[in-house]
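In response to reviewer comment 3 from the previous cycle, which asked for concrete evidence that the modeling workflow produces usable outputs, we include below a single protein chain processed end to end. The sequence was submitted unchanged, and the resulting structure tokens are shown without manual editing.
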Amino acid sequence: MPHKITNHPGLPTRQQVLDFIAASPVPAGKREIAREFGLKGNEKIQLKTLLKDMAEEGLIDGKRTAFHALGGVPRVTVLRVVDIEDGEAIAIPDAWQPEDAVPPPRLRVIERGPGGKRAAGPALRVGDRVLARTEETGKGWLAHPMKKLPAAEDSVMGVVEVDGSGKHWLAPIDKRVRHAVPIADLANAEVGNLVLAEPAGRSPRGGVRVTAILGDPLAPRAFSLIAIHKHGIPHIFTPEVLEEAEVAARLPLSQDRREDLTHLPIVAIDPSDARDHDDAIWAEPDGEGGFRAVVAIADVSFYVRPGGVVDREARKRANSVYFPDRVVPMLPEVLSADVCSLKAGAPRAAMACHMTISNTGQVTSWRFTRAIVRIAEVIAYEDAQARIDAGENDPALQNLWACWAALAHARDARDPLALELPERRVVLDQQGRIAEIALRERLDAHRVVEDFMIAANVAAAKALEAKVQPVVYRIHEPPSREKLVALKDYLATFERKLSLGQVITPGLFNRMLKDIADDNEKALIMEAVLRSQTQAYYGPRNAGHFGLALGSYAHFTSPIRRYADLLVHRALVDGYHLEQPAPQSDLPATSGLSERDRADLARVSEAISLAERRAMEAERDTIDRYVAAWLSARVGETFDCRITGVQRFGLFATIIGLGGDGLVPISVLGDERFAHDEAAKALVGERTGTRFAIGDMLRLRLAEANPLTGALKFEPEHSTGGPIEPRGRPLPGRKDTHSVGKRGRPSNIRHQGRKR
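The workflow returned the following structure tokens.
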């Protein structure tokens, strides 16, 4: 039986000891515990007895110099996430320093509470630290997070700088970090190098030591490299993954169990710079006023089998990440850019969606087969559009456009959310330098492909429902009441009403925007409608797709670059009995869903949703750095800008037609105090009534452009200390005819996210 202790006023409780051991950045022994709680004399003797009791109770183990849990892991301890496997965080004890060379135990972090509901807050990422309660089960160690701890600066990226005294500093590339860090060990790095570094000691005063030299931070390809490291994007395939991919690439295509579609003139219409081609389309009149159509998608499930090392790596990555200068693929290049890619003239394995489409655009029937296709032609969007516009005698394209007219009719009747949201496009020259930054042109050719893809995605979701198979839905929920209330309050500043008692539909927003004649006001409200939308995600429980006005929607059309689509393909293999074992191969036999996926599709869906957001953030950060680099040679020039955000400390503005958000500090807005009107999203001058609101246009001078962080800073065109006048929304009693440009950013509700 453990000894009974009457706590001295200064003696810590068991929980306090556990918390201190868990949170201590170094191994905590009796000396460290006594120092932490200020124990002296007799209190130290009582601490010794307390620690003995805790050891007998199985709470701690170890020696006087370092305590930890019995068996190696404390009941409550600090863990550091080192990997993500199948969407679950894998962690090790943060201060694991056993006397022998035994590897640290790997704990599976359970981020769900009772009922399977995920804990609030963002999911854990590699490098995160958590205080967790641990338990050992028959299947290994589990950890239940109690709270997330401040990030340990295990690795930081920055640029080497030197001050006037010759001391070296690490200037961070994250614009949220404002202070440089002293460099204790420069290694072989030179001033101006982009490097990775880690703490040189236990105290922050010890500075950092350089661990890797990444080169010139302004060199071609450096901006994407920064994003890859900053966001922890897996980008190196292990030899085992590459070896299995080579084995899979040699799998023979058996025509015995595949439908032969090589006679169809199927075409792939893609961006001119597409790195892979995973979809192709064909249509012809059915003689009854409608159309027969085929959407052929790369049969990735034939080559990437569940449980293999390629599959595990693909699950970890969850999607390809596209940068202006490179792609970080979900699959090794031998698969993503070669064997799986639907190249012109080459026989390829495909999953074919056969659809019958009425003259009003309704998909009246569908079926799915495994097929062999031979793509007749890979055409760039611009070239396809030019051939149609020129009236060329091209039956394949003409049939596609005719079928699209029917699909477009059905889309218009459905009335999905229609927001004009152009994207920025970074064009690089052959040396990897910026040649141009422009907005992507939106062509009918893009709409043709998108509407065929939407039809196939809907067919896949409904087919799996009919076959009673698991579905990874693409879900876009309606706006929350909280966001609708905020939108209602904002619209009230325009003397416009939004009744929350009615059914909120995409068409409601479309009609609202259609009724606005003034381009300036329309742009403002379009921006507000966009902000009111929820973020799309993947999940096995259908909640519909609000933006597309669809009841059932899945992603089927891009399995080369999205793991969600691969899961849909595997479910179709099971539902339509399309299994094709890998002949004479060590690859896993099945190409359908694994039992593990079926049992926990919610967890997998959540993991790939989070990875998608990670990719979006990395891509956006990289574009911001390219824009800042492009503008760094134009500091001091003035630009037409539009306000995109309002905070108490200033405004965020973007350059019309180019993008690139920058800060306009409140200190430069004029020689008066400004009040923050949160409901109207505006700053209002207390003396003059000058008003700055989201959507207003300003003529601003570019004061700073930092390519390393992507940060921009603006100031008034005429820095005289007097107020600057917003040119977007007229002030009371004034007329202003200036129009507002549209912000160049992609929507988070776009169904397709086509290859860039």
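The chain has a mean pLDDT of 84. We consider this sufficient to address the reviewer's concern, and the full set will be provided in the supplementary archive.
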